[in-house]
Amino acid sequence: MPGSRAQALVLTAALTLACSPAAPRPGPPDPGGHSATSGRTLEGLAPAPPMGWNSWNRFHCDISEQLIRETADAMVASGMRDAGYTYVNIDDCWEAPARDAHGDLATDSARFPGGMKALADYVHSKGLKIGIYSSAGWGTCQKRPASLDHEIADARKFAEWGIDYLKYDNCNNQKRPAIERYKAMGDALKATRRPIVYSLCEWGQNRPWEWGRSVGGHLWRTTGDIGDRWSSVLKILDQQVGLEQYSGPNGWNDPDMLEVGNGHMTDDEYIAHFSLWALLNAPLIAGNDLRSMSDATKRILTNKDVIAVDQDWGGMQGHKIRDDGELEVWTKPMSSGDVAVVLLNRDTTAAKLGVTMRELSLSSGRHRARDLWAHTDRVVADTLAATLPRHSAAMFIVEK
Ligand code: GAL
After folding, report:
1. Which atom of ligand 1 is closest in space to residue 140's alpha carbon?
2. Going along 202-251, which residue ranges are E strands?
3. Any catalytic annotation for residue 238?
């Protein structure tokens, strides 16, 4: 091949890689390490979607040092840590009402009497990591002091305390450009040299999936807040269509935290919520009270097969391949060549739904399919079908 043509091909390949929205996909991680926690360099902090817990969905401002300690304990005792959940994240309302005499962010000493450093040490002693929250505005959404124009000092403080994850909200932003505000904190976090996962909570207002990586973000919210309601799950789901190309290792679309176990949906609805979030490669951040969860909730949150779909090293986000109104088919290509499938019934009555091997881009003929919730195997001749109760989903791995 003439030199110039070879060079042109190399250049085209390089440009294609550089211009593709998601970073090039890595090979499998070393088999010994859990993909979400091994290889923690500053650049590769979230090779798989982060997993953990956050205080907001269940507790709002009713948080304390005791709650965080008990949650860390429960994360271990319940088997959540062993299932891959790593981050214990404190959301809004940990802050004292005003900065301290040095102008630094201070912790609410009534709710967190031992201070953040001791709490971080405790969480770390359990083999877990700790996250905190601030806003790219003059105040948080609950009007506590926040980090706009204090990025360097606040990031230093977080690093000094031993924080491993920052959720950075968008309230009270004075209408200043989002990219600048989020980049300032991204740069400040990098400058600390501490590996801190950076979670952009910008509610999808300025298409953060297009610039989240460039400001150092490892995940970015794509929508407003989730609620513990079926209609909220569906509304957020609908807003994920078309975003799959932007998500991948170290930069994930975040359809918001989980509501599983918070009490206002049925177990079928929670199973559908968890299945869909896993198929979307969502960060799996539980939002319930881990200290008192039912066995059913625990079974949902620790379903290893479903978590494995979320954490698959290929990092290809799933997408909708069929929309029949209230019935939908969503699939995700697994790095093994197998296909993860969610059959969804949004409707208030039961329905039967099937998908052909051809629709799954698999060869015609027999394929083994594993039901990830019933824990049963079957051989499918041509169509994978399920009867779906109202507001429910079934999830399968169909082998190649
Ligand atoms: C919202 C954010 C929620 C929660 C809340 C705290 O903006 O989306 O997830 O963090 O603020 O005040």
Report:
1. 12
2. 219-221
3. no
